[in-house]
Write a structure and sequence with these properties.
The complex is a heterodimer of chains A (444) and B (105). Chain A has 444 residues and is an alpha/beta fold. Chain A is 22% helix and 36% strand. Chain A has a 10-stranded mixed sheet, covered by helices on one side. Chain B is mostly beta strands. Classes of the chains: A alpha/beta (444), B mainly beta (105).
Amino acid sequence: MATVTRAGFVQDAFDAFLARRDEPDWLRELRRQSWERFLVTPLPTTSLEEWRRTDIRALKLDRFGLPGEALATAELPPALLTELPAALLTAGVELAGQTVALDSQTQDVHDGQLEPELRRQGVLFGSLDRLLVEHEAVLRPHFLSVVDPTHDKFAALHGAAWSGGSVLYVPRGVKIERPLHMFSALRAGAADFGHTLVVLEEGAEATVLGETAGGGDSGLHCGAIELVVGPGASLRYVNLQNWSNGVWHFAHQRAVVQRHAQLQWTIGALGSRLAKVNQHVALTGAGSRAQVNGVMFTEGRQHLSYHTLQHHQCEQGTSDLLYKGALQDQSRVVWRGMIKVDPAAQKTNAYQRNDNLMLSESSRADSIPGLEIEADDVICTHGATAGRVDDEQVFYTRCRGLTRNEAVRTIVAGFFQQVFDRITIASVREALGEAIGRRIREFN
Amino acid sequence: MAEFVRVARTAEIPDPGRQVFEIDQRLVAVFHVSGQVYALDDVCTHDGGPLAEGELEDHEISCPRHGARFDIRDGRALCLPATRPTKVHEAKIVGDEIFVRLLDE
């Protein structure tokens, strides 16, 4: 395929982008506002507290371009679709529906494919680009309201350029048994601006598997995830970031968990050259519950920076965050976690923990938990550990006949088991284990 | 082993002075001091601060963030809060140009 010169993020390119899309005025106006903000906002530097351990001086933003610039969807040769990187989370899973996007454009043949019975019950699932316009009344109130498109330059760019996103809307009381899958793939040199919106109305239930892959030696992801878990609803959301190691990944992700609702949010962070992710959970209703699980596995010079927030706004909320990282080579993981408890949030029970396993001498993990508590009847705790593989464990395992290499792999698998045990979908546990297994270095 | 990469003309970096270059996706600080050139990863091993932005005095560079000092000739950490060396790379002047070769760990 011929190399396409990107126009970068300039006014002419943005005007052409808007012209390519057939959107209502309110949506164009939202994009224009974000674009204006993008233009005046500088790239973050390490002098900002939020970015002090994440250096993006090597990012050349203008090497990338706006969605649809290279090829319109209709021009994609069918054979190209079979060249997509393989999805991992769907092996052996019977899905209720699936979306696939390539280079930030939803592939029409994969738009939704929702079970007819669910469609009859009023479930909406498919391309956000299409459904946001077709079902404006139910989706517009949530769109770009859970995540703040003014937070930084990347959030603003996302607000202006989002494309190829996916949406799930589940009406009151509807329980979806089988998982739904949202897949985003990138070719080398391309940019992904996928937006994920999931809305569960009162008493609804669903499981969503989100996944990324591809990107070659250079790619950009500038994305957002918005999750709304209505009163008494239950959402299980798995998000596997499996880009190549050449992708710059900037993401703003936030969930709102309402009265007596529950969220289980599991992330796998395996790919990207550099990832800067803000993952926030707001417990906005009494008795809401959130469990956040994370697995991070790094190699080479990967740099993953995850900032998490458990924000308790109402009484009797429970949140529990467990992030586990294993680091190889010269890679680096930064986790900044915050538990924030508002004055009204009495009887809060919140926990955050980050454990890191250093598999090489030159890897580095920074764990920075924080507590900001304004109520006086709460239980809030945190923990962080970082350590090498215990030689005693290696010795014990080798006494059982394993080689050193097998011993270390077994110990790494055991290290992650605590997170895996929380994942209730067997195929997801297997997929994550397999993806990590492929990346483990030989040990001597 | 990596090849030498031309990064600048010698006159482009004042003596004494420094400049940061991206080489093979690495940020490398090149120092020009007393007619010699030196190259280091532009990362303070204490907390990831950008070394080249700090104060340069003789052959010592201070991290602008917490004041850790490193010897630009061999990357040694000279005082707390840094305890580990930063990575040194090979640098040379050929004619009127500066070349750097990355030395991988």
